[in-house]
Each structure stands twice: as C-alpha cells, then as structure tokens.
Specification:
By secondary structure, the protein is α/β, with parallel strands linked by helices. The protein has 19 helices and 14 strands.
Amino acid sequence: MTRFYEVLRDLLTRLADGQPVDALRPLWSQLLATLVGDYPADASTLMVNDEAGLLPVAVLGLPSEVRGRRFPLDLHPRLAAIAQHSGVCRFPPDSPLPDPFDGLIDEELTAVHDCLGVALRDGERLIGVLTLDALTAGSLALLDEDELLAKARLLATCLRLASQLSATRSRLSEVLDNEPKPALQRHWNSPAMQRLDASLDLVAPTDMCVLLQGETGVGKERVARALHARSPRHQGPLVQVNCASLPEQLIESALFGHRRGAFSGAVRDHRGHFAMADGGTLMLDEIGELPLALQPKLLRVLQEGEIQPLGSERPQRVDVRIIAVTNRDLAAEVAAGRFREDLYHRLIVFPLQVPALRERREDLLLLAGSFLADNRVRLGVNNLRLSSAAEAALLAWHWPGNVRELEHTLGRAALRALGEHLGESRRDASVDCRRQAVIRIDSRHLDLPSSASHGTPATDTVPAVTASAGTDDGWLTLRQAIDDFQSDYIRQALAAHGGNWAATARTLGLDAGNLHRLARRLALK
C-alpha cells in the first residue's frame, strides 16, 4: 500500500493547489491501479457522480475514448443497480441488464460475463462507483468482498476529500466575487485547449467584451456558453443572435427593439435582443456579417451602454456583456473597408482563438467518445466502439470541418455499421435486436477521403502473417498474431528502457496499470 499513499499524497496536494478533479486523471488511474490492478479483472473504472451522470476519471483495460463518455444512471441499469446497492453488487453471467462496457474491452467485441461494482458514498450521497469486469464467467468469484469494500471506502474517502477541497474553493470564490460561480471544468489533453480553458477562467469573472475567433465548426458557440456559465452573470440570460440570418432591414429592430407603430407592420412593442439580455450575456454570432451601415449604432451601444428602440424618444440603459463570434479575419475586413476599425477595437478587448481540431488531435478520441455515447442512445444499441483501424483513420485525417465534421462523420458511421450488422445477422431491425447489438465501427464505415498527403488509411488491410503453429493451413488466428506482435513490441520497448516498466508505458502511450495487466496476459511477467 506504500505506492497507494504516495499517489494519494500527490493527488491531494494538487487538489489543494486548485487543480480540478477531472484534470488529474493520470493520478486517479494510478490510484485505481494500486488498489485493484492485481485483481483478475479485464477492465475496471472509477467514476464520479455529477448532474449529467457518472463520469470516468480513471479506467483500466478500456479504450481512451471511454473517458469522453458520460453514463446517466437512467440509461444504464447495471450502474443504477450498483448505485442502489449497499455492498458489493454482483451480476450473474446471464443477467438481462446490459453492461455499459460490453464490446469495449477487446477488439473481438466480447461481452462481459463477470461483473461487479461498489457504490462510493459520502453518507447517503452517491459520489461515485467502482466497477470490475471480466470476459470469463467466474473470474471474480473468489474475490474477497471485505477487502474490496475496504478499498472502495478508501476511494470514497479520496473522492470526498476532493469534493470538500473543491467546495471550499467554490465558497471562497463566492465570498470574493459576491456571486456563486459554478465550477464548470472540462479536462482536455491538448495544450491548445488547456490554454483556452485557462483564458476562459481568467476573463469569465470580468465584464470585458470577448471576441471569439476560429474556423467553422470548431465549437465557438460551446465556448461562448462555457464563458457565460463561468461568469458572475450565469444566473442571467444568455441570448444568442446570428447576425448573418437577420434580414438587413430588420437587424436594427431585432437588436435594439421597436415601439408599436414605428414602421409599417409594427403592430406591437418588441424588446430586442439587447433588452432580452439585460443582466446577462449577448452572443453576436457571425459579427463579420453585420452591415456596415448598422455598425455605428452597435458601436454607440458598446460605448454608452444605452439602446434606443425604433420609435422611442428615450434611450434605455442596458447591462449586457458582449461575446462576438466570427470565422472571418476581422483585421483583414477592416483593411478592406468592410468593417469599422473603431468597432473592431471595441470588440477585440479580449480576443480568444478557438483552435482547429487538427491543432488538438490529443482531444480527438475524447470527443469521439462523447459522440459515440450520444449515438448509442440515438440508435438504441447496447454499445458502439471504434476499431483500431478506425481510431487510426480518425487521428490521421486533417478535419477541415473540425468538430462538427467529426460529429457528423461518427453519426453516419454508426448508422452504416448498424445497418451492416443487421444485414449480416439477417434479422429485422427490431428494437430487441438493436438493444443487444454491440456495433464496431471500422474505417470503411467512416468513409473518409483517401489522401496520401494527409496520411489517411485507405483500407483496413494488414500484411499476412504465417507461422508454423496456428490453424490447420499454417496461419495464426488473428488473436494469436496480435498477441505475438504485442509481445515482441513490448519486449523491444522494455529493453530500450532498461526494464523500466513506467518509462515503457509512457513511450507506448499506455497507462502503467494497463501495461502490467497486458504483460501478465501475454506471460511477459
């Protein structure tokens, strides 16, 4: 247990320094590995409970994209059963309740046949769950339940301390800001998104005007919502208006409002988007499309904090924080005479650049996991997973359409893979058939354009491997070939690092606990 206490001390120190719970996932994974890494399970998870469901903060034996998924209890009956159980909740191999990790543990989409879990509580409050899964029935039968409960209580204590530290910081923030400030943190793997997230935390408590810039489809609207949610204005309205979608003759009325009779067809008063956003935030999307003739009026509102609805004789004060959003280069628009320079400088008080997906590939599988979870619910299937070839194809493509393209690509691929599965099984696309299906998405389902210049794999083919021991015709089974390759590769990496398993895990991009488990399965240790 010495290693456990070392990891725990490091974890609590970082939490005390203000780092959010989900930003410390590598340490949570180490903590989980020190407690349950020696159990005969093929996969294990530590999940924390929040308003949106259970969020994995540590996983062993599961693909990386699982960390991007959320598991609402109302959609996952096994997890709900664990959450309601007072001790170790075991499930029989023939349990009718679908396992949330069916088909995710290995490439062969094997269903889980031995599963148990423990609810982690702070008094009566559910703070998380610990799960163990095995592909072979009976693997966990001899597990010492008292020992597991003791370890689960240790994990619950860790989560409780993390929660208390987070709550203490939140209460201090409320006192200093005189406003409740929700701790909406999202851990990203990429430095680009970590920098953006830090900038959001920096500017959110202020009333500065923010200019969000970025390519189409990068998620600027989601960043704007996060900025509003982290600000002292989060209890006020967030009003979103797309400047490009408003008819030019109605933009002034839409933004600033009008009085009845102000023009033909004005049969009643209209508040306008600025008045609707009073006390909150106004997001002006596609600000670069705002007609040049209307830009001086917007500039006056930003300077004076007043609007004058059409047909009104009196100005009206408004308290609004502006988030302007564009995919255009506004500096170039100013140089071309299509955008006012004075308005540009009013909007660019605090500029934020939302990175393109190709600049943050480290986050791609996290995003993919979130989209796969959404499509699993939409299609009504037991589970969706990416094959290794599909993951490689996703990571190799350059994503000109950014996050939106990734979302739509995975949605189409999931539907194609489901159609192929139903066709191969020669069944009707019934609800029962879908609920039992674990669907693997291969690279052919993604249908990404083949381009050597971008390194996108064109096929799922692999070179033939022959061996003296294998099937009757001299070929290895696919599992044997994969195991042999993994064994050789791990041996070479381990030798290169002088037998240092931790360094080898870092080089191979694996969690150390996962590498030890794989090495034991391959008889390397």
